[in-house]
């Protein structure tokens, strides 16, 4: 009978709301508390009740600033700006007495994570720090809208209960983790909301235009960026995270409309092994508070299913490797104001109420479990340094001898994670790599962030479970294509690096010069080249090695700039090249003669002229917005190259003659008409370079634009004709997914796609089951998987058998043009620095690939 009453309450009160009546604050707030009337309600500032409209980011900021001005319980701080220049803010909410001692409280929490001093701290009166993060995905808005209620409640609620909460905790509210996405989504749903709410799922309100509001400006999922830190939102947030060292972090999300409500813990077998069991048990204990609160309002929920705590780059999992407890909340999404679901009509206010309810239950748990949370954090770091002391490995050393920029970028990320770095005392040779004090970094393991270091460096290939909510491997030195090695003693440890300094380049040699040259090995060499090309400076590329008259050896892909015949005077050219070298961290060499010592001469036919790339990327429905966003970010934000975003409907009527390169990101392009496909084929035949990634390569093959053949078959473990338990269906199918793993490939360093690389073995990230067949032409397989390619992560036996010795890149000649198919993602989440150059080489050198070396 009790369950029946709860269900009736759920349908009639929670979901439906008679005739979609707009609830008042009493629908959300605890009935037993009174509120200070001097604190304005959201409606008094916004002009509408919470849940009546979707709050826009500017409206949200307006309300927060008003409450900050009126209340002495909270302080609003801006911690960064988004790509679209929107403020990222954090509210610090606590008692007046705690506000007067915030510096001391911060210092105590810093000490709590330092095993050298944490044992001396008394936890009896130390406030717990609770971080509440809302709506990292912009089209999951119930979190941000619930933050309005959280701020009002914490600023205005009266009585001993709230006084005790504010005395025992410091609450950090991040009300909108992704302002750009939130603004995009709220504008869409508000613009398509009628005076009379339409609940039909086919209604335009529930169907955002591509790419939707989930992502940030460059279409990145910010909930995957806690480790890579490639975006200003993440970098600003992490600085605040480590400034405060929170004990509990809540991460408020949404899921499918036909779902209910989820809270962690997730599937026990899918926790990362580096996370202590005490974390899971404490998460379970906190979960009882959520269950009790949701029982009270009659909301359905579940836990320990579907979601996991494996990838440390998510908001609810990163705390777990930092001595805190991360809690994921997933609320069924109305995706608008009210929508039909299998559970009845799901209203926006109902979704907000669940998020606010679990906000309060999290705070209740933080108060009641305060000392346990604090002790958990202290013990986590104490155990970490003890484990580090027992570890036979004492540190890792890494560098990129011919490209210090990639090593710098990894070191920069590690310092943001509060990881201590050193330089080696002197040159060290390990295997084939030499590590120098100038270019190498050492990461000692005996430090508080021991477990996070392991998580970033390990190459794990065995797992308790074969299903992953996200990727199964992210080994950072492999992602950056760095030489690295473990160190078994501390003898090589040199001085500590207080602040990582960005490498600068230089121009060697005087002026006037006959010509200038720079090698393609530097990470930002493509940016330097493009800067020069945009200024009209003529450039050439060496397709064979040579030695300068001064004795300097230059490899494949070296860029040559003649001093004569340029739009700048010799003096101005010299000055410009000096600036470019310094900005982009490359070494430019002044050459005194065209008569090189060895190899080709500077006027050789093997010095091919380069044209300035004019690049467009086809986007829209069917295209993977994550893959497209990574490409857009790479070219626009990192390499300073304008990229035309060409919608498929525009493509159908656009002239392609203005472009040298067209990019088809992972996805399908079925909105292109038959005439457009013919136009695309004719453009390639006329000499264009068509670059495709992932499933776009398959789409091209299906449309006979390029010659690509894919491997098929189930490999080992074929279960056809046998009987398997129906209950195992989901897990069995899921085990065949490649959520994300790292594999070894072999690169032809003499091929234009291999220019700039110095070692043939290259680690590549794969999250696709596509496998490209090699072709008979031995010159047409520039990048291939090795015979035993798995380096880190999970892959099923069937899929593993299929990719061994397969092709990772295919180049197909179509008339005078080239179609380059890259099966995997060389730009994954913007931190896979090691394979970015494969993609950039396709743009800069695709047109010079010989037809004899193509399929």
From TrEMBL:
Fetch the PROSITE patterns from UniProt: PEPTIDASE_M14
* Signal peptide (UniProt feature, chain positions): 1-21
Q: Name a biological process GO annotation.
A: proteolysis
Task: Name it.
Answer: Peptidase M14 domain-containing protein
High-level lineage: Bacteria, Pseudomonadati, Bacteroidota, Cytophagia, Cytophagales
The cross-references to InterPro entries, in alphabetical order and at most eight, read: Class_I_gatase-like, Peptidase_M14
Q: Name one GO molecular function term.
A: metallocarboxypeptidase activity
Q: Which CDD domains match?
A: A4_beta-galactosidase_middle_domain (cd03143), M14-like (cd06238)
What are the UniProt keywords, alphabetically? Signal
* Family that this chain belongs to: Belongs to the peptidase M14 family.
- Using the record's annotation, list all stretches that form the Peptidase M14 domain: 53-384
Tell me where on the tree of life, at the top rank, the source sits: Bacteria
